[in-house]
Amino acid sequence: MRDVLSVASECAPLVKTGGLADVVGALPAALKGEGVRVLTLLPGYPKVMAALGAASGTLLDEPELFGGPARVVAGQAAGLDILAIEAPHLYARECGPYLDPEGRDWPDNPERFAALSWIAARIAGGALPGWRPSVIHAHDWQAGLVADHLAKQGVSDVGTILTIHNIAFQGLVPAHRLEDLRLDPGRYTQGGFEYWGQVSMLKAGLTACDKLTTVSPTYANELMRPEFGMGLDGVMRERRADLAGILNGIDDATWNPGEDALIPAPYTRPRGKAANKAALREEFGLGEAAGPLCIVVSRLTEQKGIDLLIEALPVLLERGGQLALLGSGHRSMEAALNDAAAAHDNVAVRIGYDEALSHRMMAGADTILVPSRFEPCGLTQMYGLRYGTVPLVALTGGLADTVINASPMALERGVATGLQFWPADAEGLKNALSRLCDLYEAGPTFRQMQKNGMAQPVGWAGSAAAYARLYDEVGAR
Question: What is the mean pLDDT of residues 116-139?
Fold first, then answer.
């Protein structure tokens, strides 16, 4: 059995801000069937330490970890084998993992996540009694310094993989803090981790890890283009041979409409959605309507195309459609959506996030809207497929890889699972919403799309096998 240390800043269900947490939380179970044992290293946020409880045991003491003492504790939570860094000076904060109560980045975030990579390197060097990984699987910029810290500590026989979940987040740090992060000044070059006069913690990993992955094949190709690479497209082209696009899966046990205890009426066929739809309308204060009941469960940002949705929304409403939205983000978008809800009986908005409500929304809706300008993978469209909630998505990243567009040929062959639109602008979304309403009115065609989606494989089996092969490749030293 191959031993892998997964290094991440969040992990569902312990701490979550987005899809990164879902992947980190679901992949270890899927990898067991591939003969891979995963230990997940996390910062010791209050929720993580509470989940591990008093039964957790100290495996490593670190007298000075970027400003104070720390220890590594081990335990199990939510079916996962967890290693947590208990460092109160870095992580004992009741807010989210990255932002202070005012919604600003913690000023010591670079040190907080450099510490994560430092401890990962210590573990790779044999600091834990009786266990040492052959591979470190690092996730996003928060674990981007793993390879540099391995080199700093003289560890050369452990393979490294960095997964890019979203290249827009790069962990930029002023250059004068380079030594504070225990980095080699010789790597502060264009070919290293220098990025326009700053240190990029993500670029450190991109240039130093043995292999790179990202979360869908299409996004892997997009990253090599200037419009998607966020200034790192040149690096991605240089690492082309070392980059793999491995599509995310979802936890299809948790997201299973036939056994979901969080929804009013579990079901296995699209017609079973009716009771959930009625309950969802009641919960959101929506009445009966002629058009499709659409949902959005998302961060409210330009990346997610929420401004496009606000502009295109009248097309849906004019055709008798409805919108129920759950999310939070930019204050201006929250205000615009609340204004739309106040002005239209067929729009309802909940600002915030509620995991149980997201399940009820997925079960009760006809369609889930994902109009992202770019989307590395996306999980909500896969939840939609699983629940017979037809995805309407932009043609980008993992949205392109997971949804079969309702083209004339796909409809004729009876294989369509959703709708795709491009370009990702308001006019494209308006056209797609109009197509959606046409398909919804053609009842049997829409129901066939729902059935197709529910039959689509969206779990981790194939992707776990791909990761296992990659671990074998980088761990064979």
Answer: 97
Mean pLDDT of the residues in the chain:
96
Tell me how far apart the alpha carbons of residues 173 and 22 are, in angstroms, rounded to a whole number. 27
Is residue 69 classed as helix, strand or coil in its secondary structure? Answer: coil
Within the chain, all domains assigned CATH 3.40.50.2000 are found at 2-249+460-475, 270-454
Calculate Rg over the CA atoms of the chain: 23
- For residue 224, give both structure tokens: 């090599």
Q: Which of 352, 402, 393, 353 is nearest to 374 (CA)?
A: 393
Q: Which residues of 200-227 are buried (b: 16+ CB within 10 A; e: fewer)?
A: bbbbbbbbbbbbbbbbbbbbbbbbbeee
Q: What are phi and psi of 247, to 5 degrees?
A: -65, 135
> Could you tell me if 21 and 78 are in contact, meaning their C-beta atoms sit under 8 angstroms apart?
no
The CB-side HSE value for 216 (13 A sphere, CA atoms) comes to 24
- The answer to whether the peptide bond before residue 13 is cis (omega within 30 degrees of 0) is yes
Taking alpha carbons only, the member of 217, 205, 211, 221 closest to residue 246 is: 217
Q: Give residue 18's pLDDT.
A: 83
Superfamily grouping for domain 2-249+460-475: Glycogen Phosphorylase B; (3.40.50.2000)
Q: Are 212 and 162 in contact (CB under 8 A)?
A: yes
Return the residue matching tokens 């939609």: 384
Residue 192 tokens, joined: 């290293």
CB neighbourhood size of 51 (10 A): 21
Please write the tens of the pLDDT for every residue from 165-182: 999 999 999 999 999 999
DSSP 8-class letter at 143: G
Query: Who contacts 238 (Cβ-Cβ below 8 Å, separation ≥6)?
Result: none
- pLDDT of 1 > 90? The answer is no
394, β-bridge pairs: 421
Mean pLDDT, to the nearest integer, of 351-367? Answer: 96
Phi, psi at residue 391, to the nearest 5°?
Answer: -80, 135
Protein fold of 270-454: Rossmann fold (3.40.50)
Is the confidence at residue 476, as pLDDT, over 80? no
Which residues, in sequence order, are CB contacts of 115 under 8 Å at separation 6+? 43, 65, 66, 70, 85, 87, 90
Of 304, 309, 306, the C-alpha closest to 379 is 304
* Angstrom distance (rounded) from CA 212 to CA 160: 9
User: What torsion, rounded to 10 degrees, do the Cα atoms 213, 219, 225, 230 define?
Assistant: -80
How many degrees, rounded to 5, is the angle at CA 12 between CA 246 and CA 211?
30
211-214 vs 159-164, strand pairing mode: parallel
Beta-bridge mates of residue 174? 198
Size (the chain), residues: 477
CA–CA separation, 444 vs 448, rounded Å? 6
